[in-house]
Amino acid sequence: MMTLTGVKSKRKRTGMTAKRQAAIEERLAQIPDLYKSIYWRAVEGKSMRASVNAQCLECVGWVRAEVHLCTDLGCPLYSKRPYQRIKHKSDEA
Ligand code: SF4
Asked: What is the rounded CA–CA span in Å between residue 79 and residue 59?
């Protein structure tokens, strides 16, 4: 889990501005623990996959199944969104 102390130490290593650090800390406080590391990889700018995943998850309130069920066919991220092949209990029968 990414803590605020962790953000500050990462800030020093990545050279991000204090303003950006504050914005990231504000977001992190709203993100479920399960997805904090995806968000952090995204904001570090080191993983395009993490950026797409974080954007989609944030778009639907951090609910993985909602990304799978996304109906915005015109969204630029639609074809690259994560969890397209998520398994449902009804699929297993
Ligand atoms: S593909 Fe769907 S979930 Fe992802 S950003 Fe676009 S609208 Fe949101």
From this structure: 15
Candidates 75, 79, 83, 84: which one to mutate for ligand 1, based on the most atoms within 8 Å of Cβ? Answer: 75
pLDDT, block means (10 residues), the chain with 93 residues: 60 79 95 96 95 98 97 98 81 54
Q: How far is CA 28 from CA 37, 52, 92, in A?
A: 10, 17, 34
The model scores a pTM over 0.85: no
Residue nearest atom 7 in ligand 1 by C-alpha distance: 72
Q: For the chain, which residues make up each domain, given as ranges? A: 4-92
Q: Distance, CA 76 to ligand 1 centroid (Å)?
A: 8
